Amino acid sequence: MQPSEQPDGINSHSPSLPSFPVELLIEIFGFLPSFPTVFALAATCHQLRRIWLENAVVIYPHLAARSIPCETHARQFLADQDFSVGRSSQLSALGVRRMIRNAHIIEKAIQQFEKEVVCKVKTGGLPAAPFYGKGQGHPPFLTRSERRRFIRTYYQLWGMLKLDHAESQRRLESMTVKQLYHLCEMCRLPQSIGHEEVLPAEAEGKNLENTHLVERGRPPDRDVLLERAWHCLEQTYVRVHDEDADEPWLEAKYEGYLWWIVIWDHWQPSLKALALCHRGMGPPTRLDIEKELWDESSDEEVYMDGEGIGKI
């Protein structure tokens, strides 16, 4: 954008805007629809740029919920990505820009995932109507809740690939069984995570039906993380249920696609039964143990799916 241009929704010919009181300009920034619009407005003159840079910590909360999907996980990943930027309680303008760039990368990953995987999902004999509407199968795009699962787990995977062994192990051990199932599945994503991995063509979603080629092309670091995540899951499962954990991906051929199954809305009742070991007629799981296995709160985050991310 040239300095003379203004973002949509802003009066581009109002010479008085930069002369408004600082407090009012901060409010104007906070009412903008997205961070890319904030960046565009700040780029129009020195005064507005200064207002944004000096007051990012005040402006940020007004836009974060509608601009950054899964903001808590986005902040955590920013800290994994750059300790000096992400750990500060006062997020800088640079930190916000990095978070928006990261969110855009994940949005592109979702678009590729929808094109290559989601449009081929099957529901098998599971009831689909409660999740997708009467007479409907899975739509050719992720639902709102599936997007949250994808984004949240993508951040977790991307972050762990940046951590040293001790810190990533600590984080794995803090995850619920539900989260570990999702992480194990995300480790198999046939894409370059964060555009930071080098994958051979056969592992980058071009020949997904040839699962052997795709699996063989996965980066070694991800294979190691997959093994460690599954080991943590099994340890927790055996300790709580006194039996081995099942691998749900065997059902994906009929109730998902390839090895993708635990992410889908129609499979959440099955996943919960699996995590809590309610497949038989055993006693109900105690609430304190249930929280260790299945945390409901993480699927309740609210944001505008895909809106406000823009392109950096």
Topology overview:
Elements: H1 22-31, H2 35-42, H3 46-67, H4 71-81, H5 83-86, H6 93-116, H7 129-132, H8 144-160, H9 165-173, H10 177-186, H11 211-216, H12 220-241, H13 252-255, H14 268-275, H15 287-293
Helix pairs in contact: 1-3, 2-3, 4-8, 8-10, 10-12
Characterization of the model:
- 53% of the residues lie in helices and 0% in strands.
- Mean pLDDT is 83; it is low at 280-285 and 298-308.
- The chain contains 15 helices and no strands.
- It has 2 domains: 14-67, no CATH class; 70-300, no CATH class.
- The protein is globular and about 65 Å long.
- With 312 residues, the chain is an all-alpha fold.
- This is F-box domain-containing protein.
> What is the alpha-carbon Rg in Å?
22 Å
What is the count of structural domains? 2
Specify the helix fraction band.
40-55%
Low-confidence stretches: 280-285, 298-308
How many angstroms does the end-to-end distance come to?
A: 11 Å
Tell me the fraction of residues in β-strands, as a range.
under 5%
Shape: globular
Derived structural class: mainly alpha
Overall pLDDT score: 83
Quaternary organization: single chain
The total strand number stands at 0
Q: Please write the string of helix (H) and strand (E) elements.
A: HHHHHHHHHHHHHHH
Largest sheet: none
Provide a short characterization of the protein structure.
The chain is mainly alpha-helical and 312 residues long. The chain is 53% helix and 0% strand.
Features:
2 domains, 312 residues, globular, 53% helix, mainly alpha
